[in-house]
Amino acid sequence: MRRIIIRRLLQIIPLILGVIVLNFMLIHLAPGSLFDVMTSEQQVTDPAMLDQLRHTYGVDQPTSVQLAKYIWSVMRLDLGFSYRQNAPVLDVILEQLPSTVILMLSATGIALLVGITAGVLASVKVNTIWDNLISLGAVFFFAAPSFWLGIMMTVLFAVKLGWFPVGGMRTIGSDQGTFGDALDVMHHLVLPATALGLFYAATYARVMRASMLEVFRLDFVRTARAKGLSRSRVVISHVMRNALLPIVTLLGLQLGTILGGSVVIEAVFSWPGIGSLLFDSVMSRNFPMVLGVLVLGSLLVAVSNAAVDLIYLRLDPRIRAR
Amino acid sequence: MLSLTIDFARRFARNRAALVGFALVILVIGVALAAPWLFPRNPLRIVGKPEIWPFVSSRYPLGTDSLGRDIAAMIAYGARTTLLIGVCASLTATIIGISVGATAAYFGGWVDELLMRFTELFQTIPNLIFVLTIVAILGQKIEYVTIAVGIVTWTPIARLTRAEFMSLRDREFVQACRAMGMGNLRIMFGEILPNALPPVIVLSSLVIAGAVLFESAVSFLGLGDPNVSSWGRLIGDGRTLIRSSWYICAVPGLAIMLTVLALNLVGDGLNDALNPKLRDR
Amino acid sequence: MAAIALAPSAPLLEIDKLEVSLFTRRGVLPAIDGLSLTVSAGETLAIVGESGCGKSLAALSVMRLLPEPPAKIVGGAIRFMGRDLAGLSDREMQRVRGKDISMIFQDPMTSLNPVITIGDQLIEAIRCHADVSRKEASNRAVEMLRRVRIPDAERRLNDYPHQMSGGMSQRVMIAMAIACGPKLLIADEPTTALDVTIQAQILDLMKDVQTDTGMGLIIITHDLGVVAETADRVVVMYAGRKVEEAPVEGLFERPLHRYTRGLLGATPSAQRQGDRLVEITGSVPALENLPTGCAFQNRCPDAFDRCRAERPVLKPLLPHRTAACFAAEEELSRDVAAIGS
After folding, report:
1. What interface predicted TM-score (ipTM) does this complex get?
2. Which chains border B (3 or more CB–CB pairs < 8 Å)?
3. Which of C61, C83, C117, C192 has the most C-beta neighbours closer than 10 Å?
4. C313-341 per-position pLDDT tens digit
């Protein structure tokens, strides 16, 4: 088991290497010299500093050496320096990371809770009005852009009804201790997390429904009924256990999309995370920051993917045997 | 072949949701094509009082935005942008996906291994972040947005093509072609691909829906082409006015949702019609 | 055992004119038509027939586990120890399943949940009907595994189904089925999916358990070897109907219905062990277009006009035996005439 875990974690390395190489290629594909753009955008004029930067990015050396240098510096977690924030790129990103992770986790949590509940309900009441309503809802939320849902929810629940704040992560100037602060963040979190999560909830509902119906037809469900288990017990401990496996796979595949989605949602709700940072950096053409977010975001997805795979291993003993 | 097509069409037509989707897609295409005829003047032109609500003025059925531009005209022209980018991005994704998937499956071995790792790489990179990075570096042009969206959406197509190719690769007709001394490329694209294509096309139609959503997010963030009218951008422009005139956001959002919904329904319908056995479940 | 006092003749299970229909797009099809049978405590009844004859549906009807839709009980009664099972609420029926009547299925490899350990599945079955702690249930699970002769029972509790062979899985299924001491065990093709060498072991095991507990046993099979080895009495089904019923020796000695004869390979005195079904020419008529008259007429070597015009009903033709066959009736009356003259 430990060997499997280590092997899975080792698989992350070539992926990240690939991302770094891709990054490097992007820099070189850019029209004109990206270096010039970077320095002029960031208003670096001091010749000494220009020289230092030129050296950091190795502009004065052949491409292969540049690539090796770039890989080496990223490996040492040196993602460059951001003059806008006047701090190393890594530090800025790590500072913003927790709020994005909170948003992603909450959105995923909502998606799983709503999606699985709806999917199970639809499968248990298959071909009834419940099933139809859930399927209809899933079709709609599967098609609605999350940022638009966010805005519409803001209009209704924040502007008209005043139940939730319009944006931000904390009420400015409030000091209510740790617990009060956590509540305050949660209050701010409801709308963005729901807006981001509903699309995935729709996906999970559809997949869960299909997967439940598939499992219902399997022999062991009949065995469980024959033992004398109640219908709900059979659904929960036998059908759902098996039907959840595709959801776990899907979760792993969609992590990157959820991180991407949080970029837009953060922009809608002025949520101070990686997304807002990326948006600002793209707007101000702060490329070291943009590329840094791309590398770290990929790393985050790769690691979470490995974690999801290991969870899958835990859930499905048949895979473990292989 | 003809009877097969008719059979396919009949199965598709039996699916009521797919028909509704099909009708909606036709409607959107119709509006996009008719836009210059319906609204002959530049849609970004100011035509009247700002912030007229929908269904109030008969001249501006969907109202006007904060500057006094006709929302209906912008929606109609936006349909052109949205569909164009959606279809072209999906085409890009399909070309990349088929090339990668077909090569991986046909040659197998280390080629397959390498290309699948490559595919995995693109699945790992957070897709919207990648799109924004590309657009930020290359510039805010409609071509770049299209290519960027294509680059982040090809992976499922590659996987499906690979699976289809795998199942066809060792069939007798392929071996016959090999025995006849046909070249690899000719076997791959002339013989195997036509057989593998139907499910891939269905997936491509679903990718259009995804591409429309991506494009809308990019232009919502203000990173789309500033010279064209697009639904995402309309929402982005209207955002500041949600307290007074939230309809400016609501209308284009509904347009996006209905278009994506319609494309999904058509895709699902095509899928069901391709796999009639699955439908009875 | 807190057994309810039964009159010696009162059967454990009595199926009375059971009718099950399949509600399909092609219409309502009679999958089981007027099936009656009884099983007593300690007795083994075999239900024999080709696939699609309704034997499995009959078993599932007793458990009230018919796949609904399309199948549904539309008539008749199923009495277990005098109680009509069809009239029970879902909750009451849950208390019957696994506790009073248990069932094991054809394919043991797919009948166990792949993501739950053997131990947990056994414990679940035990705690479902007995108010015991997990520890006690676990002990009882080990005891049950030993009883079905699974070596190294404690360790096996933590195994997953894919780690076991087909034979072992079927033993686990049996252990699970008898864990709560049922009075009736229904085994639906219990050995079909297993290797020949394992088949005999599983049958022996079931007979042993029956001897220990005195439970009634219904074995559903198309394998006449299984019938010869285990059954006391045999019910032969064809196209949803019972066509013959007989004690096992009598059946092998002199099958009456022409279908039974076909099953036995047309050799009336075949009592060789391990006799398999010999292909009968022709095919079972589809339920949606059963012919008037006998359903077997198109495949019957002895069919005559009456068989095509009139449906034969079950008649007691010999002591303890019934059959629904005009050809058999004719034959027997000729025999009687021959003796009389």
Report:
1. 0.85
2. A
3. C61
4. 887 878 888 888 888 777 777 777 777 65
